[in-house]
Write a structure and sequence with these properties.
The complex is a heterodimer of chains A (318) and B (459). Chain A is of the alpha/beta class. Chain A is built from 11 helices and 15 strands. Chain A folds into 2 domains: 60-170 and 262-316, 3-Layer(aba) Sandwich (D-Maltodextrin-Binding Protein, domain 2), CATH 3.40.190.10; 172-256, Periplasmic binding protein-like II (D-Maltodextrin-Binding Protein, domain 2). In chain A, 31% of the residues lie in helices and 21% in strands. In chain A, a hairpin with a 6-residue loop joins strand 4 and strand 5. In chain A, helix 3 crosses helix 9. Helices cover 87% and strands 0% of the residues of chain B. Chain B starts with a helix and ends with a helix. Classes of the chains: A alpha/beta (318), B mainly alpha (459). Chains A and B meet through strand 3, strand 6 and helix 7 of A and helix 6 and helix 7 of B.
Chain lengths: 318, 459
């Protein structure tokens, strides 16, 4: 995981674009550049994930509020439980320890923080495992209050669900065996068997690439790791956060430096549940300023990536 | 098997009449001085008689040879049903079953995680060992041109790979990383999409061989029966002619020959019909319901695997819940395997009782499945797992086990039915081939002796 300070610097986007176009190895990300002020440079272009129509500000969200009078927050308080849609198969993010049965990870820490803030108790949570393609239906049907599941905030999804402030920045990356000659989405990957999850951003990205060769689509990005270990694929494209999770499960792999696009994770709520989104934004604000975000990052992500991280900035709309 | 029985009479028996009679006839024909084969054979009444006797004796022997050949080829087919194709078909079902059970048990062991019980571990390794041993056995029993051989070869190669994937899954799981679940799903996909399909093809190949052997064993020996009727008609006609010519009512030799041929023909017709009817019963009351019960057992295992894998997947896909719906419909839906087994065992109270018990167990299973599913949907994974793989009388495992044991009891009953009916079929024709052989030789001898006595009266 790269630090996020460098992303806010002028000229860095040119580098990122160059990565997309030329795909050379990006080796210069420095872990020391975390000191940048949280003000974001005007006019910075986000390299949009393919498959998203764009046209929206991905960092825009409702202003934080600790008010609990809204209908959606009241429903949670009345129930006494926060129902969260999560993943139990994403190592480091949301996964079940097979031995203890506990569900844990970076996303789960955030869910616990939400429950603590809204209900005063981190255990007042029902964790529901939702498959990737069920995340939006689960919110729409009211099965879950929130989805905290490495859920990428994009413009198309904004038409179906509402998002909180972004809590993590990532981008598509390439995961390969350590001795691989692949240096990026360039001629070095041509002719290789590339694994992506069905319906993922990575799959869309590969479709539009001139370097796409033998794609191997699977149900779940974790299946890519199985195939890679069995020698049935040569590379996996997934977002950097999940790639880190895969890498943590197999140290004989490496993540090719450089991201292919920019993506943000956010908490999703039912479309129009702005009271809940505002409440979550307030939680996120104190979660970040109180150092909990950093502690969770240090616990889950830093040991694998070896890189410092900082939360993305929010653009509050009111 | 059939060849020694058929070649014996052909080479030995005809030598007598063919060697003796014409040799007696030929010098006399030469002494008479008349030329031409037909006049030599039919020129004078005694010659005509001699020729008729030779032809009748040959026909009797031909009837014998045909009977021995057709009967023994049928009993060979019946032997094949009992000793070869039915056991092979049953073994193929066992291979199928142990593979499906291994997959189900591997998922159970995986869900038990660190607490995998010795019973589950033993069951899994027994399944793998049984499948491997039966595959070796099947490979040895079926020839290289056997249609099942290709599936056996493939399964033999894939079994160790599958077992390796399951071990990797367990090792990863012990490390506490989610990859283990993905490995187990991968292993299971290999099993469900490849190996079980091959096992099914093997089973179908062996079953169609069983059907062929059944058809061979059951078919009536029309050629022998037809020739027997012709022989009898000619024997009666010869006696009527002889009566007109000599005014003697009975020629003892010909009467004896007619009696022998009649007994041989009746024995052949009745014996084969009884045997065919027993064989038919051994199929409809034994082998066929047994096949259906095997299918039901395998389908139940597939349902159980889908249920377990749904928990292994930990909500990463809805595919297994869909699979449960489809597989359980095949097992217990209208016209499903259980319904068909109920229909097929309707004449057998013991087996029917077991199948009914299996249906009841399935209903219990289904309702417990729904409870566990609801718990899982509500985020109570722990309860869903303990309801599904936990032991105790109120669990899914208990319902599944009782369903399985009912089906096994019904299958054992059908296997016993098959064996006893098929044995009856075999014993109905056990003495037929040698008996018919002796009778037709006697008939031939009777013809020759009887007619030669009349010929002697011309001298």
């Amino acid at each position: 995981m790269k630090t996020f300070g460098w992303l806010r610097r002028p000229g860095v986007w040119a580098v990122t674009s160059a990565l997309l176009l030329g795909g050379f190895a990006f080796a210069g990300s420095s872990a020391a550049e975390t000191n940048t002020a949280p003000t974001r440079q005007a006019g910075v272009q986000i390299v949009r994930a393919p498959g998203d129509s764009g046209g929206c500000d991905l960092q825009a969200t409702v202003a934080p509020s600790t008010s609990e009078s809204g209908l959606d927050v009241q429903r949670i308080i009345a129930r006494g439980k926060l129902v969260a849609g999560i993943d139990t198969n994403s190592y480091l993010w949301g996964f079940r320890d097979p031995n203890s049965g506990d569900i844990q990870g970076f996303d789960i820490d955030l869910v616990r923080a939400l429950a603590t803030a809204i209900l005063g108790d981190p255990s007042k949570v029902t964790l529901l495992a939702v498959p990737t393609d069920q995340r939006i239906p689960a919110l729409q049907s009211g099965l879950v209050d929130v989805v905290v599941r490495t859920f990428t905030h994009n413009c198309d999804r904004e038409k179906q669900v509402s998002f909180s402030a972004d809590y993590f920045q990532t981008g598509q990356q390439i995961l390969v065996p350590k001795n691989s000659q692949v240096t990026g989405l360039n001629s070095s990957i041509q002719g290789r068997r590339i694994c992506t999850a069905k319906g993922s951003t990575a799959e869309a990205l590969l479709q539009t690439s001139q370097y796409k060769s033998q794609e191997v689509p699977v149900e779940n990005q974790l299946d890519c790791l199985v195939l890679m270990q069995l020698g049935q694929v040569d590379a996996t494209i997934t977002d950097g956060a999940l790639a880190a999770g895969l890498n943590a499960q197999d140290k004989s792999l490496k993540i090719v430096p450089g991201t292919l696009d920019t993506e943000f994770y956010a908490v999703a709520v039912k479309l129009g549940a702005t009271d809940l989104a505002a409440r979550i934004n307030a939680v996120l604000q104190s979660y970040i300023s109180g150092g909990d975000w950093q502690r969770s990052y240090q616990k889950w992500i830093r040991p694998t990536t070896g890189q410092d991280g900082a939360p993305p900035t929010a653009h509050y709309t009111r | 098997m059939a060849s020694p029985a058929t070649t014996g009479p052909v080479t030995r028996q005809p030598a007598g009449p063919r060697g003796d009679v014409p040799r007696q006839a030929a010098p006399r024909a030469g002494a008479g001085g008349t030329g031409g084969l037909s006049s030599r054979l039919t020129g004078t009444p005694p010659r005509r008689l001699q020729t008729t006797s030779v032809l009748l004796a040959l026909l009797a022997l031909l009837f014998g040879v045909l009977t021995v050949w057709q009967v023994s080829s049928r009993s060979t087919a019946a032997d094949n049903v009992i000793n070869h194709s039915q056991p092979l078909s049953n073994d193929a079902a066992k291979i199928f079953r142990s593979l499906a059970d291994a997959d189900t048990t591997a998922a159970t062991g995986f869900l038990q995680a660190g607490q995998e019980t010795a019973a589950v571990r033993t069951q899994y390794s027994d399944d793998i060992a049984t499948a491997s041993q039966l595959l070796t056995q099947a490979a040895a029993q079926s020839g290289s041109d056997d249609p099942g051989q290709q599936w056996i070869t493939k399964l033999n190669a894939q079994l160790p790979t599958y077992a390796g994937l399951v071990e990797t899954a367990k090792a990863d799981d012990r490390q506490g990383i989610p990859l283990g679940g993905a490995y187990l799903r991968f292993a299971s996909a290999q099993m469900q999409n490849q190996m079980l399909d091959e096992a099914q093809s093997l089973y179908q190949a062996e079953s169609s061989r069983l059907d062929n052997d059944y058809a061979d064993a059951r078919s009536l020996p029309w050629a022998a029966l037809g020739l027997g009727v012709v022989l009898l008609a000619l024997l009666v006609r010869a006696q009527i002619r002889l009566f007109h010519r000599t005014n003697r009512v009975f020629n003892l030799g010909l009467v004896f020959a007619t009696a022998c041929a009649t007994v041989a023909l009746l024995w052949l017709g009745v014996g084969q019909s009884i045997s065919a009817s027993y064989l038919s019963d051994s199929d409809s009351k034994g082998a066929a319901p047994l096949q259906m019960l095997n299918q039901a057992e395998i389908e139940a295992l597939k349902c159980r695997a889908a249920e377990n894998l749904n928990l292994v997947a930990r909500g990463s896909t809805t595919a297994y819940e869909t699979a449960w719906d489809a597989e359980s419909k095949k097992l217990a839906g209208a016209g499903g395997y259980l319904a068909q087994a109920q229909q097929m065992t309707s004449g057998d109270a013991a087996a029917q009782g077991e199948v009914n018990a299996a249906v009841a167990s399935f209903h219990t299973w289904q309702s417990r499945h729904d409870v566990a599913h609801t718990a899982n949907q509500g985020g109570d994974y722990g309860t869903a797992v303990s309801d599904t793989i936990g032991s105790g009388s109120g669990t899914i495992d208990a319902a599944f086990t009782s369903l399985n044991s009912s089906l096994s009891a019904a299958a054992a009953n059908e296997q016993a039915q098959f064996t006893s009916l098929a044995d009856s079929a075999r014993s109905a024709t056990s003495l037929l081939a040698p008996g018919a052989g002796v009778l037709t030789v006697l008939a031939a001898a009777g013809v020759v002796v009887g007619v030669n006595r009349r010929v002697a009266e011309y001298r």
